[in-house]
Each structure stands twice: as structure tokens, then as C-alpha cells.
């Protein structure tokens, strides 16, 4: 085998390796995720109604101009669930949960969801929390079990005519991304905490008490 | 010094071809969809846990909030039904019948995927505001010059048509075997 051929073959083998490494690492190093695209929209922990896509503007060009969109970013799903409650009516609407990279993990529309929209988004570490959530909440909400810590909730409502925009924007702006979640009270410990424990008087030593199962 | 020179050439080949092929693969995947129906390519985004690394890389290269299974499906076309690239200097007719969706929208973008400005502020039609023929079929003209009937005015360079089907059984794999998305017919060109 001639030297030149050997060089080219080695180069092509290396090209295959470079190609695979780039493809596999790209999702981890790409910076243009949809989470960052929502910077400045004021969508942390509450719903922000996005401006409609505009002519000649690349920002939000991926959104359907005949829909109104509201976005809520959430973080720290590992610490506490997120409950979304929204009264949406009169038009086609949908709600979806996305991870930071813009992968659609869960979606409902006005026909598949009961009105009003009530989603309880729980993360991987929330299972013990789920046992403490009042049965009433679990009965009302659709529990969305996702393996992410942060992500986005997106509401879409169909604006068949530009004159509908103000009303729809008001409707979406009233959606609650931080709805209260009733927790069953942690029961008093059966064994009294010894006096030498360094917990201040009156503090609830909840960490040491296993949460009760919610009946039903 | 020959071994070093040989190594340098091999590394140059590896980096150049490796990077270029990866970029081409990501771009193609981001533009084209997983499935296509005539000129329409489905833009499905990436489902949770999807293993295809090319789809994941393409999704990471584009900022998007793709429609989920309960929401619908997005199709994009940058060619007409005969496979010719869409040209903003031509008159196109998007012709079809009832689509399997509760609601659908058709939007015209320029070649860069941006909306274009026009006096009527119209960039598209939806299934509830277009004028249909007596037999339920419809025709939407996409052109820079005024057209009769349903007309989407366009301007600028290039043309991209995006069809969004909302609440469609296609997302759950219940596609009718004879799914017919609208045809894109090219008329006169300036």
C-alpha cells in the first residue's frame, strides 16, 4: 500500500470519529436552547404572554402567528412540584410541558383535558412529596410525572382573527403557574424529641418522620 | 520530518471531512423531517428519550417549541409538488381537500423562515377563514401580486410554506392510508 493511500485512509477513519463525536456531543454543547431563548420574557414561575411573531424578526419566528403563546419557566422540580391552573375557553387551546432543550414531554388540548386546566408537574425526587399532597389536589389535577428538574410550560390558544388577540392575551395572562398545593399536615411525632436534641423549641422535626400514605 | 507531515495531512482530512459532514447532517435533518408527504416534510421535533443521535443534534441546533402528540403536527415545504424549489417570484396555488385535523393553519415565510411584511398583515389562512368551493375543496394563492380568492401576499427572497395540523389523529399513528396533504402547484413566474 502506498504511503499516500495510507494517509488518506487514516484521514477518513479520523473523519468518521470526528463526525460521530460532533453529532453525539452537539446536544450537550449547543447553547441555543429554548430555555435561554425565553430570557427577558419574565416567564420565571409565572406565565408570560409572548409577543406575536413579527415580519422580518427571527426571534419567535418558529411560533404559529395564528396562535397566542404563554410560557412559564420552572426550576427546582426536585424540591417542589409545580401546579398549573388555567381557565381557557371559547377557542382551541393546548398545553405542553417541555424540557430545557425544547423536547415536548407531555401535552393536552381542550378536548383531551378537563376544564379548567389543572396540571400537577412532579419531578423525579417528588415521590415522597406526592404522598403528602392532599387527596383533593390529586383528584383535581392531572399528574404529569417528568424526569427533569427545570423546564417550561407552554399554553397555546387559537387566534382565528387579529381582533381576538387582546381577549386571548388577557385569558392566557390570567393562567397560574404557581397554584397552591395543599399538603396534608405532617403528624406530630409519636415519640417526644429528647430535650438534648438541638432543635429549637416548637420546631417540627419533620425530616425524621416518614410521611404517611395518602389513603386511596 | 515525513511522519509529521503525513500525520498533519491525515488530521487535516479527518477534521475537515468530519466537521463538514456533521454540519451537513445536522442541517439536513433540521430542515427535512422524519417523514414526508409529497413536498411536505413532517417536523416532529424530538420525542422524549428518542435515541436517534442525528435527530437530537438537529433539535439542539434549532430553537423551537414543537407540537406534542395532543397538540398536532407541523409540516414544512420548500419545493412544489414537482420537486422544484419554491421561488417568491412565482405564483403558487396550494390546492387540497379536508385535512384530518380539527383545525389547521397555513403560513408563508421567506427563505430564511421569517414572516414577510405586507399591507394587509396577512401571512396565512386557517381552516376556518378560507373560502372553499362547493365540493369542500380549497385553493390558496401564494404570490407577490394580488390574486383572486384566498391570497397570501409574499415578498422578499425565497419561500417556505408551513402547514400546522392541530388535534390530528396523525400524531397517534392513526393516519389514513391515503393521507393527501395539499398539492403545491406552480403558476406563472415573473
Strand-residue proportion of chain A: 15-25%
Distance between the termini of chain B: 61 Å
Radius of gyration of chain A: 24 Å
Query: Helical amount among residues of chain B, as a percent range?
Result: 10-25%
Arithmetic mean of pLDDT of chain B: 87
Shape of chain B: globular
What's the structural domain tally of chain B?
1
Order of helices and strands of chain A: HHEEEEEEHHEEH
Question: Residue ranges of chain A: pLDDT <50 for 5 or more in a row?
Answer: 199-216
Number of strands of chain A: 8
- Report the β-strand fraction of chain B as a percent range: 25-35%
Query: Most extensive interface, residues per chain?
Result: A-B, 63 and 59 residues
Question: How are the strands of the largest sheet of chain B arranged?
Answer: 1-2-3-9-5-6
Neighbour order of strands in the largest sheet of chain A: 1-2-8-4-5
Q: In CATH, what is the class of chain B?
A: Mainly Beta
| Main beta sheet of chain A | 5 strands, antiparallel
- Superfamily at the CATH H level of chain B? Domain of unknown function DUF1214, C-terminal domain
CATH class label of the largest domain in chain A: Mainly Beta
CATH-scheme architecture of chain B: Sandwich
Please give the domain count of chain A.
2
Succession of helices and strands of chain B: HEEHEEEEEEEE
Please characterize this protein's 3D structure:
The complex is a heterodimer of chains A (about 220) and B (about 190). Chain A has about 220 residues and is an alpha+beta fold. Chain A folds into two domains: about 1-30; about 35-175, Sandwich (Immunoglobulin-like), CATH 2.60.40. Chain A has helices spanning about 5-30, 35, 125-130, 135-140, 165-175, and strands at about 50, 65-75, 80-85, 95-100, 105-110, 115-120, 140-145, 150-160. In chain A, strands 1-2-8-4-5 form a five-stranded antiparallel beta sheet, with helices on one face. In chain A, strands 3-6-7 form a three-stranded mixed beta sheet. The model of chain A is unreliable at about 200-215 (pLDDT under 50). Chain B is α+β, with helices and mostly antiparallel strands and about 190 residues long. Chain B has one domain: Sandwich (Jelly Rolls), CATH 2.60.120.600. The mean pLDDT of chain B is about 85. Chains A and B meet through α1, β2, β4, β5 and β8 of A and α1, α2 and β5 of B.
